[in-house]
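Co-fold these.
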Amino acid sequence: GAGVSQTPSNKVTEKGKYVELRCDPISGHTALYWYRQSLGQGPEFLIYFQGTGAADDSGLPNDRFFAVRPEGSVSTLKIQRTERGDSAVYLCASSLTIGNEQFFGPGTRLTVL
Amino acid sequence: RKEVEQDPGPFNVPEGATVAFNCTYSNSASQSFFWYRQDCRKEPKLLMSVYSSGNEDGRFTAQLNRASQYISLLIRDSKLSDSATYLCVVDTGGFKTIFGAGTRLFVKA
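Predicted complex below.
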């Protein structure tokens, strides 16, 4: 079956712009996670959803970052007023339910110029 | 202190060698532990879960030491294809998962 997909695969934007990153989880997976990974580092937790609700958003760096999952499937990570320090690979993962193996998408490479 | 710490390596070993990685975690309430593998410019993939009693999957053995708050991964008979970054993953006592920075392994012919 289809794995986790993320679009776009690459996004180049200018400082101050708004971006949206999309994640399509594996069908039937109730838990969805967003991570950010910089070169030479492990994935950094941002937020996770159980169903439609954000169960833990403590990893979001500041209020420029926001994520939604309105129907409990597709999720969108939104970044306002992008800064150069936001440049990273944004990874999405889903799992059948909380605590199970996480399956990762290929990531979106965001570059803020 | 970081929540999850790993030796970044790199570990350079010949084919057939045995190599071990350790990972320490700071939250004594953590309940779930995993090792993930990440190839260059690819997404992480689960290698194995780590259970209290320890577990083995072919050439890979994972151990958990709750008293000292560390987990380990042992790879026997290393293959060229084992070259990757190995990520230690720990929950925070809830279901928020924290990744270590990863340990890089290079297996040489």
